[in-house]
Structures are given as structure tokens and as C-alpha cells.
């Protein structure tokens, strides 16, 4: 077993580690089909061999060529480290700076098998969200981080460590860019080639920025989405007895099962990959698994027999309003079509809310499996005949939508979860058009448009922190601190809309501890606004200084946030001034965070809805109890929220207008250009006539 000290020595070359190839018994990424020419295959090999001295290149070339032929990419399986991959306490890392040790902890958490979707292929979530492109990069990065000082910055080009460059103590220790491809060449086909060549990488959001915290990272947002869907669509505060049907139990979508239970409803979640189902069930995120559609329908009909749910006094989950998460091992299209059959034959609508979290940003490379084939058969077809696979996926999407449409016409409320489901369904020819709408709108709303968009405009988003001691007591202390800060803010006075969010947050923190949400690092996510983030950061930093928290705390957020992402089919889908396809906000956020105190920053092409569809960025900021850390947090976190609120205000959002005006009242050095509304629409018509 390799130690952390050995990991930090750099690539193990003399002697070379044993090549064990792909490990059995763990999930693996789908085979990629980059369709390289003979010359491009040579280039891919040449690029991979650049990491190694000439005397061992011949031996490695043979196995790298085999990996490229079998899997469509050179992962360098020989260098998969023989170590228990997890987030170790920060003091265990042999580093010269706490900042570098914190980054190493976050990297190893992203690759922890309990966290990562395909750990041996360095995929954290989303089917193709890479931490690195190959294992040589992992070894080099860990070595650089162990050696660097506070006067240096590590530069990452799409997984490749370009090197450690001189900087200064106030600069970020790490700068990451992923997938920064010239726009005209940012297509899926070009991406497959460039990834195979080892020259670019799809980092999703928090995979390539080293800030993923397991499915908890999306649970809070999913809980808020389901609760607010109930408020908006069903006009209820209490979702008990309501049925929510969706799909996906992978890295991000795995949050849906836990979120359904916390929200108090019955969640039926379809998943084709049994390994994903078993993983979530073992972790306690999924209460029951069934491959029987009759079983699922009986649940919705309140007829489920007691022996299947031994933990309940009765199996009538819906009738008795028992919160439940059921994983259906099968294709979600079969589930939707069975619900249509029940509607047609019995007249009963058995589902109240619906969505989808298949990895539709990557539909033709294993993100979506067609209903016409079983899982293993579909994987085989993907590797042998990707053209046929694509055709079946598009046919499946049309059936998928047709079933949803039938149920929605009878009163089921469906929303797009920002995974490009409706976008890909439209491209497949499915009936998702919203007549008279702009091109970012469909028959069903994005969850941002109807549910989360106003939350973003109020400045609330997925703030998070990681306790680097690895001690659950430290996490409990931060939970207590956050709850106290929110309660104090309510007492001091906030607007009605903000107060509701704060109450939801307090409920979340209480529920989070009870539901054992930690997978991997000791982390917490909390949808908070600018005032909340800054106040919580300051309070946590002071607790570190006073010894009430034993080790530094890493602050971060999902890129899916107020300012972090420009994505016209998701985060900025409720921007209606024509700028939804512009990416100034995300780029400015990356730059602004870098010089306002972030420990590391990242900027990505792709994430959420897919390659070429979004620009997004994130950060990590290490709180170590120092006065300097407090000042960095105040400055950087304020910008990190106000940037997006100001942009949303300029686009015409009333909540954002009120929020940024309040921010300017609280900080006299903040001056934002405010829009004037056109109060008389007739002047536009009159002007156009001339």
C-alpha cells in the first residue's frame, strides 16, 4: 500500500508499478469513440509519452496504445495509485503550506470510490466529469503541491500541470482552466478527439475544480426545488403523500432519493445501472430497490404489501403519507409508459411531480441509455456501433417525452432539471416546443426559470464548506455556528422573501445532521446569500482562531450559483434581455475571485448541460483563523455574489434590483449601474413604425 509521502514524490518510474489494468468489481466509464485517424492515434500516444523519460517509453507505448484501442482514451491504468483514496486529515499531507495540503485533500476526496462515479477513469460525476485526464497528471500535481510555497502558483491546463510559477502570497496558489477551446471548435465531435489526444478535458463543474463534496452537494438544492415545486405547482407546503418520479442515481442525481425523503414525499427514481442503485442503498440514501414495475405502481396505488417494507407498519406509503425513496432498477421510459398505461386503464394519475436527471448533457456517450435495449446490451452497442446507439437514444427520447406529455396533460407537473433533457429531446424531434417562446424556453420550464431563478436573484446559492480535520465534531460546530448566524440575521431584520429562505436554511441544517448526509469529506452545503456567506465565514474563521474548530476550513460553492455560471438552458435561462448566451459574468467572476483572495480558482467550458453549452467557474478559499483570511473572505465572497446579482438586476429582474440596492446601502464603496424600465411599451411600437 502506497503512503501519502510516496504519493508526493512524483511519478513512480524506477521501478515502474505493476500494470493491473482495469480493476474488477468497480464501475467503469463507458468506452469512448473518438474516431481518430491513424495519424491522430500516433499523436495521442506521443502526447501521453511526454510525461515519461525515453528509456521506458517503449514499454509504456504498447499498453497505452492498447488502452486507446479498447477504451478510446489513455488513462494510464498502470499508475492508478495503490492507496486508500480519501480525504485524509490536513495534517497528514506532507506539504509546506496549509493551502496546498487543503487542495490535496479536496483532490483525493473527488477520487474517493465512495464519492467518485468512475474512480479509475478519474471521473467524479456526470459520466464524464474528470478530475484529471490521466494518472500521470495526478502524481505530478500531488508532487508540485507538496513542494510549493506561498510564493508560487500551480497552473493547470485542462488536467495538465503546466508547472509551478513564481507569484506572491496574496495570489491564488492554484489556477485551473478546463476545456477552454476556441468557440468555433467547441463541438462534441471535436471534444472527443481532443480528449483522446490528451489536450483538453471536461471538468463538469466541481469535478475539475476539486470542490465536489459528494451528492450532498446537490441535495440541498434538490430539496429546495422539490419544496418550491410543491408550493408553486401543487399549492401545498406539505408534500406528504405526493409522488415524485424522476431518473438517475449517479454522482449528482443520487441526491434525488435523499431529497425526496427530506421533502417528505414518495420518490420513485429509475436507474439502469445496478451498481449505482446498490451504492446509494448501501450509503443509506435510497430506502428500497425494486426491478418490478408492478411493485412501483402498487406503491403509487397505496397497495404495496407490508413484507416489502419491513421498517413500516404498513406499506401504504402514499396513503399513510410516509416519506419514501424507491429505486426502480430499469429504464425510466418504461416507468413513465407504465404510468400512462395506468392512467388509460384506471383513470388514475399516480404521479404529482416529475423531472429527469439522466446525464443528457452527454447523451450519446453513456449519459442516456435507450429503452429499447438492456443496460449491458446498450453499452456493447455504444462501443461497436455508436451511430446506431445515437439513433436509438433519439427514438427513446421521443417516447420519453410522449409519455410525460400525456401525464402532464392530466395534471402532473414536470420541470427540466438543467441536464439538457429538453434540449436533447428537441434535437431528437420530440414534442417539447413552446409556441411563440424564445429559444431558451420549452413546453416545460427549467427549474431555474420557475423555481430557483428568483432564489439566485436574491443572492442565494450553494455555498459550502469542508472541515479539513476530518472530525465530525468540527462539522457539528460549523453547523451550530451557521444556524446561530442565520437566527441572528432574522432577529436583526430581513425582507419577507429572504426570511423564508433563512427559515428553509435553518430547517435544512437541522435535517442535514439527522439524515447523515456526509459522503467523503466532512462537508456541508447551505444555500445562502451574500450577508449569510460572509457572516458564516467570519464566524467560522474566528472559531478556528479560538480553537473551537481544530483545523482550517475550506470554503467553496457549486459553480451552479448566482454568479458562477453562464448557461442559457439552466443558470441564466431566466435572463430575458438577450444576454443569456453571453459569458461575461462567469469569466469576470473567475478573474475577480482570483485577485480578491481566493486560494484557488477554476474556469470551465461545459458543466451541467454539456460541452459548448456553458461557461462556469468556481473557487476554494482556506480559512486558517488569521485576520488575513477573514479579510479575504469578506472581500471575495461579497464580489462572488454581487457580480451575479448586479447582472441579473441589469437584465430586469425585480428581486435582483432590490437585492443589489440593499447591498449598496450596506457598502458605500459598491456602485452598480441600475436599469430604467421602459414604462410605456407603446413608444417602442411607435418608434418601429418610423
Structure explained in plain terms:
There is one protein chain. The protein is α/β, with parallel strands linked by helices. It has 23 helices and 17 strands. The protein has helices at 4-7, 38-49, 54-71, 98-110, 135-147, 188-197, 216-234, 255-263, 274-282, 293-300, 332-346, 363-367, 375-384, 386-408, 421-428, 447-457, 472-492, 496-514, 530-545, 584-596, 627-650, 654-666, 682-689, and strands at residues 123-125, 129-130, 152-157, 160-166, 174-178, 243-247, 266-271, 288-290, 324-329, 353-354, 413-414, 461-467, 522-528, 553-557, 565-566, 600-605, 615-623. Strands 3, 4, 5, 12, 13, 14, 15, 16 and 17 form a nine-stranded mixed β-sheet that branches. A six-stranded parallel β-sheet has the order 8-9-7-6-10-11, with helices on both faces. A hairpin with a 3-residue loop joins strand 1 and strand 2. Helix 7 crosses helix 16 and helix 11 runs parallel beside helix 14. The longest helix is centred in the C-terminal third of the chain and has 24 residues, at 627-650. The chain is globular and about 70 Å long. It starts with a helix and ends with a helix. Residues 303-315 have low confidence and may be disordered.
Amino acid at each position: 500500500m502506497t503512503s501519502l509521502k510516496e504519493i508526493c514524490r512524483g511519478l513512480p518510474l524506477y521501478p515502474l508499478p505493476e500494470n493491473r489494468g482495469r480493476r474488477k468489481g468497480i464501475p467503469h466509464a463507458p468506452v469512448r469513440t473518438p474516431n481518430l485517424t491513424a495519424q491522430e492515434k500516433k499523436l495521442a500516444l506521443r502526447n501521453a509519452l511526454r510525461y515519461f523519460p525515453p528509456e521506458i517509453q517503449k514499454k509504456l507505448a504498447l499498453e497505452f496504445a492498447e488502452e486507446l484501442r479498447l477504451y478510446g482514451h489513455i488513462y494510464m491504468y498502470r499508475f492508478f495509485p495503490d492507496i486508500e483514496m480519501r480525504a485524509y486529515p490536513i495534517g497528514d499531507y506532507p506539504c509546506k503550506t496549509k493551502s496546498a495540503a487543503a487542495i490535496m485533500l479536496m483532490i483525493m476526496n473527488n477520487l474517493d470510490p465512495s464519492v467518485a462515479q468512475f474512480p479509475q477513469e478519474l471521473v467524479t460525476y456526470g459520466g464524464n466529469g474528470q478530475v484529471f485526464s490521466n494518472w500521470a497528471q495526478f502524481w505530478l500535481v500531488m508532487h508540485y503541491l507538496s513542494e510549493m510555497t506561498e510564493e508560487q502558483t500551480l497552473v493547470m491546463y485542462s488536467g495538465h500541470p503546466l508547472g509551478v510559477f513564481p507569484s506572491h502570497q496574496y495570489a491564488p496558489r492554484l489556477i485551473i482552466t478546463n476545456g477552454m477551446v476556441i468557440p468555433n471548435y467547441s463541438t462534441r465531435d471535436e471534444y472527443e478527439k481532443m480528449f483522446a489526444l490528451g489536450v483538453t478535458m471536461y471538468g463538469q463543474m466541481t469535478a475539475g475544480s476539486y470542490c465536489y463534496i459528494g451528492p450532498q452537494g446537490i441535495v440541498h438544492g434538490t430539496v429546495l426545488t422539490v419544496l418550491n415545486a410543491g408550493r408553486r405547482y401543487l399549492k401545498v407546503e406539505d408534500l406528504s403523500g405526493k409522488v415524485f418520479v424522476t431518473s438517475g442515481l449517479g454522482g449528482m442525481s443520487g441526491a434525488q432519493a435523499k431529497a425526496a425523503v427530506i421533502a417528505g414525499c414518495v420518490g420513485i427514481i429509475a436507474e439502469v445501472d445496478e451498481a449505482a442503485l446498490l451504492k446509494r442503498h448501501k450509503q443509506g440514501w435510497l430506502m428500497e430497490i425494486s426491478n418490478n414495475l408492478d411493485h412501483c405502481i402498487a406503491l403509487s396505488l397505496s397497495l404495496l404489501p407490508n413484507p416489502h417494507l419491513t421498517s413500516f407498519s404498513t406499506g401504504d406509503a402514499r396513503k399513510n403519507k410516509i416519506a419514501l425513496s424507491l429505486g426502480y432498477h430499469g429504464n425510466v421510459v418504461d416507468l413513465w409508459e407504465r404510468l400512462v398505461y395506468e392512467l388509460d386503464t384506471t383513470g388514475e394519475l399516480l404521479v404529482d411531480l416529475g423531472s429527469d436527471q439522466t446525464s443528457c448533457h452527454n447523451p450519446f456517450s453513456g449519459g442516456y441509455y435507450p429503452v429499447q435495449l438492456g443496460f449491458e446490451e446498450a453499452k456493447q452497442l455504444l462501443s461497436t456501433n455508436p451511430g446506431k446507439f445515437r439513433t436509438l437514444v433519439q427514438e427513446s427520447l421521443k417516447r420519453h417525452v410522449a409519455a410525460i406529455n400525456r401525464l402532464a396533460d392530466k395534471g402532473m407537473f414536470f420541470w427540466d432539471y438543467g441536464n439538457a433533457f429538453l434540449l436533447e429531446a428537441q434535437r431528437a424531434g420530440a414534442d417539447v416546443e413552446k409556441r411563440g417562446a424564445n429559444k431558451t424556453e420549452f413546453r416545460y420550464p427549467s427549474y431555474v426559470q420557475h423555481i430557483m431563478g428568483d432564489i439566485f436573484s436574491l443572492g442565494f446559492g450553494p455555498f459550502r464548506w469542508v472541515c479539513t480535520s476530518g472530525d465530525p465534531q468540527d462539522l457539528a460546530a460549523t453547523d451550530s455556528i451557521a444556524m446561530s448566524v442565520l437566527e441572528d440575521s432574522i432577529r436583526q431584520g430581513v425582507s419577507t422573501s429572504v426570511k423564508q429562505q433563512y427559515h428553509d436554511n435553518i430547517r435544512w441544517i437541522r435535517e442535514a445532521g439527522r439524515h447523515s448526509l456526509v459522503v467523503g469529506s466532512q462537508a456541508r452545503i447551505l444555500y445562502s446569500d451574500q450577508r449569510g456567506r460572509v457572516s458564516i465565514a467570519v464566524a467560522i474563521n474566528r472559531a478556528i482562531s479560538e480553537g473551537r474548530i481544530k483545523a482550517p476550513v475550506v470554503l467553496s460553492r457549486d459553480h451552479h450559483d448566482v454568479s458562477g455560471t453562464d448557461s442559457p438552458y439552466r443558470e441564466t435561462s431566466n435572463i430575458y434581455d438577450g444576454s443569456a448566451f453571453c459569458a461575461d459574468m462567469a469569466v469576470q467572476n473567475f478573474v475577480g475571485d482570483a485577485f480578491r483572495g481566493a486560494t484557488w480558482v477554476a474556469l470551465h467550458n461545459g458543466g451541467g448541460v454539456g460541452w459548448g453549452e456553458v461557461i462556469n467557474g468556481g473557487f476554494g478559499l482556506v480559512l486558517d483563523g488569521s485576520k488575513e483570511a477573514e479579510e479575504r473572505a469578506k472581500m471575495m465572497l461579497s464580489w462572488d455574489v454581487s457580480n451575479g446579482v448586479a447582472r441579473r438586476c441589469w437584465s430586469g429582474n425585480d428581486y435582483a434590483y432590490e437585492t443589489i440596492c440593499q447591498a449598496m446601502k450596506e457598502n458605500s464603496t459598491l456602485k452598480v449601474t441600475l436599469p430604467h424600465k421602459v414604462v410605456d411599451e407603446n413608444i417602442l411600437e411607435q418608434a418601429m413604425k418610423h
